[in-house]
Design brief:
Blueprint (H helix, E strand, L loop, with lengths): L52 H5 L15 H25 L4 H23 L5 H25 L3 H21 L7 H26 L13 H30 L7 H28 L2
Helix pairs in contact: 2-4, 2-8, 3-4, 4-8, 5-7, 5-8, 6-7, 7-8
Amino acid sequence: MRSSNPVFSRRGFSRDNGYAGFNTAPQAGYAQGNPYAQNPYAQNPYAQNPYAQADLQQGAPPQAPATTDRMTMDDVVVRSAITLGTVAVGAVLAWALLPVSTTSYGLAVGSALIAFVLAMVQSFKRSPSPALILGYAAFEGVFLGVLSEMFNSRWSGAPFQAVLGTMAVSGATLLVYKAGWIRVTARYARIGMAIAMAFLVVTAVNLLLVVFGVAPDGGLRSFGPLGAIVGIIAILLGAFFLTLDFKQIEDGIAYGAPRNESWLAAFGLTMTLVWIYVEMLRLVAIFSSSD
């Protein structure tokens, strides 16, 4: 089961209504991924923020506009909780109401495709749409619910372990980011993007080999040692995407992005966490299979 992030081309926060936003250069391309669709980053998301240049040249910290209608960390937390909660509700309902069967697999694939389309529409919109983002979250939840139930039926407890693993990875990433052990610079972003692009290209080629029967065992995505190594790389890439998300949120708040842009932050975080969860689910299954 492949996993990528469908917001590789996600734009950054805007400069609407006079707010000095996290312009379209920073964070112009993010990855978010799901096992069905990939959208590679094409731009350098960390070019110098032109809105902050004047303050930086004077040695003063960036000053957000004097207004109450700008994004705050509380806004990001609340919107992220709503979006992730929608994913969780969709997953629980799908697990409870859709028994493992050919029909449920079909519904899962259909939900994944709808979620991907909604994610792509939002990615190309000029402003965040809560309806699109929550719609994406709901259909993504249905997909994850069926996928998790399928894995649980063969590897009992795998979804619970994957949730714990996702929490551990995201918590550790936030810790090292806040501690300053990782500095999100233009060079850091370029190197990470290059690795992400290479990973997606190789994964896409591998998928074609599997589809045409050249690698019937799954190739790089098999449930063996090689598949485990690739899975670990994918999870590390997910952690990399999280650091970009954290930087985007930090800069958006510092430069006074409009409050509704917190939906965009929630959207990006949700997609990245979905990527990590799916890869963690596969990794748990691989290690369980080797027992």
